[in-house]
Amino acid sequence: MAGDPLIELRDVNKYFGDLHVLQDIDLTVGKGEVVVVIGPSGSGKSTLCRAINRLETVQSGTILLDGQPLPAEGKELARLRAEVGMVFQSFNLFAHKTVLQNLSLGQVKVRGRKKDDADRRSRELLERVGVADQADKYPAQLSGGQQQRVAIARALAMEPKAMLFDEPTSALDPEMINEVLEVMRQLARDGMTMIVVTHEMGFARSAANRVVFMADGRIVEDRSPDEFFTHPSSERARDFLSKILHH
Ligand SMILES: Nc1ncnc2c1ncn2[C@@H]1O[C@H](COP(=O)(O)OP(=O)(O)O)[C@@H](O)[C@H]1O
Ligand SMILES: [Mg+2]
């Protein structure tokens, strides 16, 4: 069962100009819960993630993290970004820093850790995601799957309360997808609260507590993976599933 609410969106609306990209979004994610978000391209999945991390502002509604409204700016905002780790499709590592430096930097700058302590924690996390032997290399010297695992470790280094993943395996060669999904599965088993935008339906079935289906800026379905995959209630979801499962 899910714990207390950790991420709450209430009646959230966002526009890009005339385009109503998030429409009356209500979503609650409990502590330790894993919510997979799926839906057609352009349905607002990335905007939803970015709004939760306040990379995008919203025009109306409330977004709470652990009961607190999102801070608007300054130090509080930097801390919020650390509390909600985000992993994107593109790995977003600092190209001119080593893997170890990539992990330690934010710990020192945002969390105020001593460099030695940060480095020690960085090495533990690199071990956990299976790339300990890559610590002194630069991102470009790693495979895509390794880089994405480093990006996950870097987010974890900030000790986030929740992790958001926006299509973390979409840019990867097929043989590397599983090594990243396995790290995410382990994270889920360890009790991390996660929102995962993905087209990996195997992951959704095996790791998600709930599947949220979005279309045209709205949440159309929000239910257990088993219910969603066997009895999608909306025409939109049935149509979407038939396209991705039988192509
Ligand atoms: N910065 C932006 N400016 C204007 N329109 C945007 C911007 N970002 C996204 N959009 C539009 O908002 C809609 C939702 O986009 P997005 O959240 O990226 O969808 P998804 O991740 O589901 O593919 C799309 O129509 C997209 O073109
Ligand atoms: Mg997207």
From TrEMBL:
Instruction: Write out the GO MF terms.
Output: ATP binding; ATP hydrolysis activity; ATPase-coupled polar amino acid-transporter activity
Domain (ABC transporter): residue spans on this chain: 7-241
> Can you say where in the cell this protein is located?
Cell membrane
Q: Which Enzyme Commission number(s) are listed?
A: 7.4.2.1
What the entry lists under PROSITE patterns is as follows: ABC_TRANSPORTER_1, ABC_TRANSPORTER_2
Q: Which InterPro entries match?
A: AAA+_ATPase, ABC_ATPase_HisP-typ, ABC_transporter-like_ATP-bd, ABC_transporter-like_CS, MetN_ABC_transporter-like, P-loop_NTPase
- Give yes or no: UniProt keyword Thylakoid: no
Q: How does it sit in the membrane?
A: Peripheral membrane protein
Q: Which PANTHER family match?
A: AMINO ACID IMPORT ATP-BINDING PROTEIN, GLUTAMATE_ASPARTATE IMPORT ATP-BINDING PROTEIN GLTL
Q: What is this protein called?
A: ABC-type polar-amino-acid transporter
